């Protein structure tokens, strides 16, 4: 079984690493799989390359390919059409909420959707409608709606 020598084993390892990348996505194993493939091809082209040489080639190509991948993916951040996409609190700013626990001494609770959040704002009785203006330390900051908006909530 000469065909199952070093080069073929490296190519099999590359295929297995590629399959693992597909099963467990993380965009890292693909770089190691590419390094194993390069090592396998070089081992087939230069059969006199011993195991120590193969490991050195694999390590070197792993570093080179990871650095190339890091540079490639590092520049992949494009500005989003919706910069608040993954910022739930930022998406709440401007929303109208109902005070569920009176805001006293600047602290209370408001209903947001089907949940409640701690809120800070001017003293306001329960049942009042408020507008979210921001957040601080995990609490929403709210302000009263203007009188013309108060009936539209």
UniProtKB/TrEMBL annotation:
Q: Where is this region: Disordered?
A: 114-153
Q: How does it sit in the membrane?
A: Multi-pass membrane protein
Localization in the cell:
Membrane
Q: List the keywords (alphabetical).
A: Membrane, Transmembrane, Transmembrane helix
Record's keyword annotation contains Transmembrane: yes
Biased-composition ranges, Polar residues, are 144-153
The record's section on Gene3D superfamilies has:
Nucleic acid-binding proteins (2.40.50.140)
- Domain of life, per lineage: Bacteria
Q: Could you list the residue ranges that cross the membrane?
A: 51-69
NfeD-like C-terminal domain residues: 90-144
In terms of Pfam families, this protein maps to:
NfeD
Q: What is this protein called?
A: NfeD family protein
Question: From what organism does this protein derive?
Answer: Stakelama saccharophila
